[in-house]
Amino acid sequence: MQSKQTWLGVYVAGVLMSAACSTSAGGGAAGAAGTASGGRGSSNVPVDGVAGASCASAGSAGVTSTSSAGTGGTSGGDGGSPGNPARDGGTGGNGLSGNAGSASGGAAPGPSVAVPSAGCGKTATETPGQFVKHSLTSSGVSRDFFTYLPVGYAPKQAYPTIFAFEPCGGSGNPSTNVPIQNESKGRAIIISPQSKGNCYENQIRNSPDVTLFDDTLKYAEANYCVDQSRVFAMGYSAGSWMSIILGCERASVVRAHAQVSGGLPIFIRPGVDCTGNMPALLIHDATDPTNTINGGIAARDRLLRVDRCDSATQPWGPTPCVAYQGCKAGFPVVWCETTGKGHDRQDNLAPAAIWQFFSQF
Q: Residues 316, 27, 224, CA angle at the centre, nearest 5°?
């Protein structure tokens, strides 16, 4: 079991690692710590961060939240300034009216109140239960994405919406991603933005793929019944790096992210690019030769730092996952380290673990 001092050592050691992965792409998550009373913070004040690197990846640190509002919280007290209505519960209120964070893993129990998008009530034109290809103009060029509406899709029901990012070489074929639809079944919308080339552009600042996320989310919110309080990001390999970038740069929009075999990008400036705390589930194999586990550890340890988690863990969900204790309420961190799987999307573990993790929000 690692101490906080060890986490920092791993994190700083990551800065010294720069081995590039030919089939990996980058992403970075960041977050904020805040007051424990009154729920999720709504005012983010950036502070300095420490970078870590592994396999063409580097870490980023977080920002601090100084006011509290919305749902959740480990103790009572009046809420502060209004939060993001789609993610933080809207206007501040009495902390006692929120859900108290649990002692195990820091998650606030039970889902939050749905925030329906403008597309609620609009009849969908595509057939549910299959991926349907669409195109739109993003950053001045035509980009493709796939949508998956759940079987039995009801246009007046606000659905959790999962953005799924594929590995390098998977563009045009959403089946290359973690098959989360096998677990979410009739309970979530899935959006799969496609890379323009072989991989997402997730090793550069101001990536057009972040803008693509913004544009596809706007499309989904306008055309489907999206629950704006439950927008998630997930991915495998290069796609997991993309989900981490969104967890950093779009923390006010993305409620949580999950990754299988990812890492942190070197370009992230923690106090500038990252906008809030971030719950996360990270799956990584100790023998992965492509995206080495050092990148996953760096990503995990940065989250433990900014979400103020303890070093203690307890079993969580499917084996071998563990949840870190003492995390800021509503921002759990779960780590699933396997061995002998190599660079694999881990279908026997990832879909069930990711859906269970997302379902708590």
A: 75
